[in-house]
Structures
1.
Amino acid sequence: MPAQSLLQFTGKSIYCAVANAHIDPWIPVDRAIITHAHSDHARWGSKHYLAHKDSEPILRLRLGQDISLQTVEYYEKFVINGVTFSLHPAGHIVGSAQVRVEYKGEVWVASGDYKLENDNFATPYEPVKCNVFITESTFGLPIYKWQPQHEVMSEIDNWWRQNKSEDKASVLMGYSLGKMQRILKNIELQDKVIYAHGAIYTLNERLRQAGFDLPELTLVTKETDRKLFRGSLVLAPPSVDSSTWIKKFAPYSLGYCSGWMALRGAKNRRAVDQGFVLSDHVDWPDLNTAVKESGAEKVYVTHGYTSIYARYLNENGIEAGEVHTMYGNEDENEEEEVVQDISAGTEAYEKHKESLDDEVIIDTKPSPKQSQKEKSPSGDLGANTHTA
Amino acid sequence: MKQFAELFMNLDRTNKTNAKVELMKQYFLTASDEDKLWALTLFTGRRPSFKVNRTMVKEWAAEEAGIPMWLFQESYHSVGDLGETISLLLPKSKVDGSDKSLTEWFYYLGMLPGMTDEEKRDHILQAWMQLSQHETFVFNKLLMGSFRIGVSQTLVVRALAEATETDSNVIAHRVMGQWEPAGTTFEQLILDKGENDNASRPYPFFLAYPIEGDVSGLGNPEDWFAEWKWDGIRSQIIYRNNELFIWTRGEELSTEKFPELHFLSEILPNGTVLDGEIVSYMDDKPMPFNVLQTRIGRKNLSKKVLEEAPVAFLAYDILEVNGVDIRNQTQQQRRAELEMIHEKAPDQFIFNLSPLIDFKEWSVLRELHTLSRQNIAEGFMIKRKESTYQVGRKKGDWWKWKIDPLSVDAVLIYAQKGSGRRAELFTDYTFAVWGEDGKLVPFAKAYSGLTDVEIGQVDYFIKRNVLEKFGPVRTVKPELVFEIGFEGINESSRHKSGIAVRFPRILRWRKDKKAEEADTLEALKGILEMYK
């Protein structure tokens, strides 16, 4: 990487030397521009943060109320040492943004995580013309082709309806940030009362307080009468399937929303009753569309099938390079996320803490991850160690 | 096809045995007789071959998908199943499903063998266009196998027995042996009440359970027979209508593979079925399994091979006498029948009885057990004298008491992604021990032995510690140590280590050990010397 590049991959962040600003750094820095509030992109410990205003409630929830955070609107320009920055909708989750960086006529876009389909909650993705495009490749293989959202949502509707007719609970797992809001905005709400695990409940409450139009959820507590779960929908983060928390819903059917559900192997490994192929990342066709629409002459491919997609682009006449980052990685990042959702301290969470089963938290911490963390101080400095 | 594809996907989705049986039962109750027979063909591993070249099918699929071959391969590595990969890569199907029945699709496939490659291509592309994504996947399975969907023959038999309200032992017997959909009907095969004329049909094998706890837990020693557990190929030898058939445990008709045993047709009375073990046998004693292994899988048994790896049959049960099924007689009665047949045979070393061990106390057996390896046995089989010959693996009457495996601590050095249920996870590992030059020498591959949680943890480690990539294989930072168990050890010129181990598997993850503390090749060679 030549030193004069506008953005550099330093092994700690996507770095703009001229502005001395870091995009999604994975170690604490002075000035961090955050694409979105997922824990692998928004990490704890930086001095100053800048993000889209819709990210604020979650960032404060996860990184601490007292962080130094400046928020901006989409398209709003801010200049640091002659470099012009602006955030543009990425359509991934609420507040997610592509970071446009312009200096001396050259434009780079770091897209973070994104999807092209309008999910009726996150501001829809918009292509941004640039010279250099930095893209994720979480599902960067031609085997990944999503069905239209409405089809998946009616699958969920039917599943719930079927379970209801059998007097079973419908326990639906998915990322608490992004996936759950998308589901709530697109399925048919067959009941007035929708139950939720603490991680999802907390997040939902915070977003509602911030003025987002989301239905009210009911927190599952130890005291909740189990009979009430019959026929109901229960929203849960991934990995509760290996906890004792889930037992209280019996008889239940277990559903899981994730792009990984496209593969039989992944589906069977999770041992869920129903896998719903629903992802907040671009699939193969949309990834190619996004690259094309960016008009970029050079593409850097980050987390996912980096080497494969970079090679594909190179063979198709677009100069591309692969970049190693700490985002996403090849595996499902969700488990870590649950831990962080739960351990992020908030009033709402504290209030209901006693009612959550401890097992959920314990089960989501496989030991090698821990040792991995200990070994690399530059690794995850996230919410695990942080209590508000 | 819709109905069968749905059955397939539903079976695939559930891990619950009862649910699987119920799904198959519903299918057997509602599908047409023709389709049922084809489904049964698949469930019992009798998929016909359509003589298609997998490489060509891959190329046609890549072309249809508009992607280069290397990208096809990468996709395949991620999915882990060829049929599924193709179904995901093809342009989204516009159809909702095919109206052709399973049987019609088999006839469609049956046209392939006579075609030129060009015609085959068109034929297959035509099919893909008429099928939904799930159906394409199932179709590809029919086209290229392997048709594994986590349904054991026992479950199929149970479902079929429930659907037809027939005793499951009867069904188990009926679906065994040589038959193909073209030569029979569902009526004839399954529902026929009369005597079946299928002379080659074997009985389902009775399988033993591993013994739990100490052998004395079995109660009075006088109620039990004990035999050595031979390390060979479990087989049934059938002589009916003046014809000899040799079946092996994998339900394979292997008569031609064991010419030494053909003389039994002159010894056995018509209507005899023996159960026993085919072992390699030299100088009046059994040889280790690896000697036998040299001739398994060979198409041509040359004179040299037959001389170097001769076999014998060690009989331990008899299931049919004079054409009468005697599986309901006691073990003791059957043993007496077997001994009578053997007595009539002229002196020779090829048809032997597996001897009964003389013991009055469990302690005697416990002592003898330690000598298993010297006797080229894997331990003991302990059988209740009063037991009948049952179907499949049943608890209570037949127990296997195996010797502890040999083991060494080894370092994980290569990993590869699994397939099917474990696609996307690194589950296939290669292990190494320390050579004299201080380098790690690979000596065994193992796939199983870890819990799902451990697999997840190892996978997490691997994904973050890849050193190099060779196609699907990753070189991994040598750090994790596992205790690797195996059943036998032999010299091998084909392996870098000079050693081949039999049935290697992971006994446990030695989180307490560092890579430097793993065992050496020298230690492995020491074990070899001990059991040579």
Note: The CA atoms of residues 153 and 187 of chain A lie 5 Å apart.
2.
Amino acid sequence: MNASLTAQANSPNQTSMRAWSVALRYGLIGGAVALFLALVGMVEAFATRYVIANVIDLGTLLLFLSYLGAGYVAIKRSGARTPFEILSQGAFAGFIASVFIALLAVVIYAIPGIRTIFINASPALLAILTFKMGVPAGLVPILLSGVIFGAIGGLIEILPPSLRRSLIYAAMVVLVFGLMQDLLRVTLQKWKFLDPATSFTFSNNGLTIVGAVTLFILTFLASQLWQRRGNEARARYRQLPTRQQQLLGWGLIAFSVALLLVLPLLVGLFFSEVLVNVGLFILLGLGLNIVVGFAGLLDLGYVAFYAIGAYTVALLTSTSLEIVYAGGNPFWLALPFAVFFAVLAGVILGIPVLKIRGDYLAIVTLGFGEIIRLIVLSDFLKPILGGSRGIELIPKPFIGSFEFAGPEELYYLILAGCGLAAFVAIRVKDSRLGRAWGALREDEDVAEAMGINLVSTKLMAFAMGAAFGGLSGAIFASKLAIIYPSSFNLLLSINVLAVVIIGGMGSIPGVVLGALVLVGLPELLREFSDYRLMLYGAALVIMMLVRPEGLWPEKSRQRELHESQQEEILSGPLAADEEVAREGAAG
Amino acid sequence: MLKRRRSKLEITDIFIYAFGIFIIAIILYGSFETLRQGKYSASQWADLFVFGITIGGIYALIALGYTMVYGILQMINFAHSEVFMAGPLTAFFLADALAKSGLLATNPAISLLLIFAFSMIVSTTVAVLLERIAYRPLRHAPRLVPLITAIGASFFLQYAFRGLFGTQFKVYPEIPALEGVVTIGVVRLTYTQILVMISAAALMIGLQAFVQRTRTGKAMRAVAESRESAALMGINVDSIILTTFVLGGALAGAAGVLYALVFTQVSFAMGFIPGIKAFTAAVLGGIGIIPGAMLGGLFLGIVESVGPTLFLDGLNIAAPYQLKDAIAFTLLVLVLIFRPSGIMGGQTQEKKA
């Protein structure tokens, strides 16, 4: 496969043959992706969410995007340059991809029994695939859409970069507005004077057609303007005196803080709830980021500290009669204990693993996390920890007479926690300790040779990470008012790990972004919930393949990853796969 | 400075050893108490032991996949548990169809062979795709990168299979030919258990013969020794790595059917716990060492089956069987802390990160 990509063709005839076979290959891959999306149930689940009201839904859009992607990659790889080649080969790739969906439609129609194996191959899916036209008639639009979107994909690839970027931005803004319609509509409706604009852009069921077109054009123009004039604006900013630059910076910070403070008032109850969940994951992510991102110790049992924080608060504050030991204390008294016990556990679990490195460490910590969960779950400690029934009646925190009752109030508690954690993380990152962690992450032996005390440095990382985990767990317990051992399984550790890695290991804004994308998005799009872990897994793999430094990378790590790639390309045999990785990382 | 650091290390060492001695003391005391109370008869112990060997054989087959990949790539193929799950979950539909057509009752040998073959093919396909798509591009990446990829792939596969085939448990049809018991003294063996033991042993002997006797097996050992030197000797490293994944996948697929025969039900989530345990078995025997994985699997199976009753019952812990997974995990942690090179690992330390 690689050989065919890099081989030099000798005659024009061979070149075109090769280009067609490339188109065929990416058509097949695109078709496999489309088929998978349909059979795994995503197309059907997402078909209820319209991006543009009654015109296009997210499920159909997924299929169209597979065809489009097939055309795009085919043209990118085949090197076709004449307009005819581009159109025909792109369309061919898209057509091949759509054949898969057409075949699926025929199979569902002809063999209803297929449903006993593939549970999603239902008549409902058939209706979506064939645009509600049934089998013989609906096949035509399927193949037609394949041809059209394949050709569009090919065209996108050859557009001038600035135009392409603007078009992609515009399409993405329309998509985001379409998907975030609930949030945006509810928020906009709070202001009566915006009503005309709101009803212009949104119907009850996605964007209106005129709204979508307007959004598209506006974003396109704005993006073009920024590309033309952006450099000027940046240059003008740089010419400002340092004092004014600082003032602008502070102004921006003050504005963001003010926005964060009034956010729950703006977005209402449901979205405050989402924000609270995102906040809990930011807090967990910041903690795990210290262990994984700063110190390079892959911890898969991080959920244990979250559980310890939550159980400490539950045991100390619960007013349930079954808690005979120490219940009934206020949250603020329990909080320091929660953090203390989490730190203690971090140190105690840290000591045995001091000499274990890399992937073994990941497995040992995973083992610790599971042991703690299994012990809590067993009948053995049931009299104290409630077994699988958990602990209930955990009161909410109070300040004076102000109760952190609902998400709108808890938001401020989380915000304070995140602010504190982010402050600590930022301050510690470039401190002596933070630099010691960095050295540890790069090479343990060299770090030790340089006089870094491995024991205390590692234990500090575990302890500090555990502290944030414990804090997060404490807030979680009082938010939910009841906790079960099943809330603290391995999936949560993986969830947090995904937040840290997809955001960018070692990067604090990356954690925030990661939590917003990985926790916030699925909460807003309920259809995602079933596919959440599947998409996390896919995101982790894709991220590692094309952009291992994360969405919002930390600078030194990005440099480092690119350096090593450069070295490999120079030293190792040039494989097409490395080329892919490099292109992905650069683009 | 140096002196202070050494004294600190000793404190943590003392802590670690105290932790180990504490666990051993609990185990000894628990076993002593259990045996003293004498609540269990010899045949009950024998049942637990036989079950341990059965399940241990299955763990050993899965562990071979972990250990071979680790031997060659020095990476934990975290997604191997999903390779193990893919085969029996899809082979269920074949088994179901065979049961409905009556072939399973009239021709059990052929049906079982078909089910095994199908499961092994599916698991192998998943393993090969995994290697080709997710791992091969990362051959030269920093060490955490393939591990994170493997974790991601594991969850992707698990939930993709959930999406494709549904969340409910699938109950394997009963095979009339496998219903029956052989009694030798106090030892009772069901036909299923005998089948599992024989197939596991046959597969392991086959693998050992392949690795030791064939040209490809020799090449595999050479690549495990040193990838660069093997490449210089004209061995196609990529194809050997692929072969390793094929072998691991096939063994996992077979293990999956055996698992389904013992526990009768399969689901998308069935891979995780056996996967972790098989990994424990691989580490226990010394990761990268093929006979080690077999021995580790059997040992873990027996400890997990006999352990909860033997160690914990005497301590008056309620429902000790609930803690069997905790015992397996504790064993994993203890081995990794005290003897990361495993039982058969000798003094070869864990390869440096």
Note: The beta strands of chain A are 50-52, 56-57, 202-203, 206-207, 398-399, 402-403.
